[in-house]
Request: fold
Amino acid sequence: MGHSCRFVTSVRLPRHKEIDGNRLPAAETTRYRHRSRRRPHQDSSQLCRPGARCWAHDAYGSGPPPREVGVVRLRFLGPLEASTDDQVTAISSVQLGTLLSVLAVHGRQVVTRETLLSVMWEGRPTPSKNALEAVVMRLRRALDILDGPDGSAVRTMCGGYVLDVDATDVDFHGFRATLDAARNVRYTDQRRALELLETALSVWRGTPFVGTRDTTLLRLERVRLERLKAQAEEQLSEIRLELGDDVAALEDLWRLTEAAPTRERGVELLMVALFRTGQQGSAHHVFHGTRKRLRDELGIDVSPGLQAVYQAVLRHDKVLETADALTLGPAQRQLRPDP
Reply:
């Protein structure tokens, strides 16, 4: 069997680099890459012959040269992006975005080739034999900033592929983890829970998995994430009302109920905030508008919790000024991840 011989080529980098303790300007900086070339009937003694430039004789010392790779972050809660501290790569291709999203949803679990084919070509004719491999190769090139010293972040393993990136560096996995942390301190440290919820919601930049194919897997994941986001926003406003920050809660609740007018928990909290800020008339208007929408669009009546808040508003009940106003209906909701 032949051996693979490595030859060195140099490529200029547009920034400084430190070699052997010396900081070189961009014009003199080079990064070394290797390419493999098959030479049949070549024994191992020829791989590093005198006068040839190989890793052992390179300025980096023995072994492959180090690569400067920062912490990689993948962003799916809005336009798809991959970034390090100083680089950003937008994933604008629908095929590449779909593949990356499917791998990210599975975390660091291997996704079989058959699963990827069924998801990415859902409802379409079976692709050619090497179509998936071609897309994987394109994704690896697009994610060049993710390459570590030992290969691509998209790895081939056990008859499939895996995205070898920490869950904390994938925005929607980090979002879920931060919500869990907020839930754990919800009733022991309200201000800490508030900070965690604000941090979790800050990673949202738009619709999840925008620019990908409308596959069943990604559609269901998008619904789960958007439901979790709505629950987190409601919980955030709930804590602000408990802490007496009624004005800030009111601003958030107007926006929340405009985006999701049939989520009754948000309407309950909005009515409490309106009452506390002296806008009882608006609270009446919100209740009747919600009841009409529920009847016209869903064919249902308002929930007992929303009805209880409305009755308290009608009575000008002082309970609305206390934390008990937030539990007039069913037991107070807690943040909980979808199954």
